[in-house]
Write a structure and sequence with these properties.
By secondary structure, the chain is an alpha+beta fold. It contains 18 helices and eleven strands. The chain is globular. This is CHK kinase-like domain-containing protein.
């Protein structure tokens, strides 16, 4: 297959996947003589993919890549919706993102305003052997922030500007090339909707209701969180049915700390770059903005900045649209944005409760659970997480985050808009 042997950690990589990786390496014209695979990330960072960092040495130079490898085990693939997730990311990297940047270039948008994403060296959308090979952003000075630490105001604003640019380009494409936009919309698969009509999947989340109730400190809060996670799937279907496509965009779908990298410039946190587009789909734009805000910031920072953040997002949306002769007040009026924040707040609340249970766990305890369920699916993993008590520090983090979310929802009056 190659003039070199793959070295390092190539566990759980199928021969067909290795062949594709070799093909992409050959295309780089490095005349590689050494390729080493290393694990990437920590336990809990990547539930739906086997992610590796590969280092390549050759006669014509060296380079590093990030390789996302789909599981081939049928049980795991079915329960994690692997085919759909990898298909979404394939479509985003090979079709959608390049098209959106092409729109910016054609309109003469300054390069510093261009949408940022990792270069894709190759993507194999062949089930069950999917592989996505990306630029290693670490090599260009990008870092991942600590997922346990809340994002601060300046960082949140940088992310909101990125969202505004990303979302604005959906509106532009919808107006300028409606057939292309429709094609992308159809190709991208709503995995949350698929989960919502899969009974064995929805049942696996029920245990999180009890876990969440056991984390919070008082009876009032326990009543507030009651059934909010298990009710997620009904809300997903309801909101999808009620969705006003006039305001919809292609959304990132999972915009939290680990899926946004930052370039460090002169020891300062610089512009963000979105990664991991497996949850991309057509949806209301607030599902990116408030998803990020309530999953990645703390109560104190939200209290000071929440409404300013929404204003800032809308201002940046208008700025990005202006390059194409469009206005945010026409395309997505601020009062519509405010109404959508309230409309989608109940769904975001349930998602934030769920992620507080999962993402605040200590790396070691997450690894223990994953090791014990190596060949199990996501349904079994979710059930195991729901039935495995958090370690003290993890529970403390989760409690603070959940009670902060409850406090913010009280302060912003969002509970008044809940229907369940």
């Amino acid at each position: 297959m190659a003039e070199y042997n793959f070295e390092g950690d190539i566990t759980n990589i199928n021969k067909r996947q290795l062949q594709y990786i070799h093909k992409v390496i050959l295309e780089q014209n490095l005349k590689a003589d050494k390729v080493v695979f290393n694990s990437f990330g920590q336990a809990g960072d990547n539930f739906g993919a086997n992610v590796k960092r590969i280092s390549i040495e050759g006669e014509n130079g060296t380079m590093k890549m990030i390789v996302k490898i789909a599981p081939v085990d049928e049980i795991v693939r079915k329960s994690t919706f692997t085919e759909h997730l990898f298909h979404n990311e394939h479509v985003m990297y090979t079709e959608v993102l390049p098209k959106l940047v092409a729109l910016q270039k054609a309109a003469g948008v300054p390069e510093e305003e261009h949408l940022r994403f990792a270069k894709c060296y190759g993507s194999q959308d062949e089930a069950p052997y999917e592989v996505i090979i990306l630029e290693d952003l670490k090599e260009s000075g990008h870092i991942m922030l600590n997922k346990y630490e809340p994002l601060q105001d300046t960082v949140v604003r940088d992310i909101l500007k990125t969202f505004a640019i990303f979302h604005s380009l959906s509106h532009v494409l919808k107006i300028r090339e409606p057939a292309t936009y429709k094609c992308f919309e159809i190709k991208l698969r709503d995995v949350w909707a698929l989960m919502s009509v899969t009974p064995e999947y929805t049942k696996s989340f029920i245990g999180f209701d009890d876990v969440t109730a056991s984390i919070v400190d008082n009876e009032t809060h326990r009543n507030i969180v009651k059934n909010k996670i298990s009710n997620l799937f009904k809300l997903v279907l309801k909101l999808r049915k009620e969705e006003d496509k006039k305001y919809s965009v292609i959304q990132h779908g999972d915009a939290w700390t680990n899926n946004i990298l930052f370039k460090v410039v002169d020891d300062q946190i610089g512009p963000p770059t979105m990664i991991d587009f497996q949850g991309a789909k057509r949806n209301n734009p607030v599902m990116d903005t408030i998803y990020m805000i309530f999953n990645c910031t703390d109560y104190e920072t939200r209290t000071k900045n929440f409404y300013d953040w929404l204003d800032y997002y809308h201002t940046q949306l208008d700025k990005s649209l202006s390059y194409f002769g469009l206005k945010a007040d026409v395309i997505y009026p601020k009062d519509q944005l405010d109404a959508d924040v309230k409309k989608y707040s109940e769904l975001i609340f349930g998602i934030a409760l769920l992620t507080s249970n999962i993402l605040n766990r200590d790396v070691n305890e997450t690894q223990e659970i994953l090791d014990s369920m190596e060949h199990s699916g996501l349904t079994e993993l979710m059930s195991s997480l729901a039935n495995t008590k958090m370690k003290d520090e993890s529970e403390k983090r989760a409690r603070k985050r959940i009670e902060g979310i409850i406090a913010s929802y009280n302060e912003f009056g969002f509970f008044d808009h809940f229907e369940t």
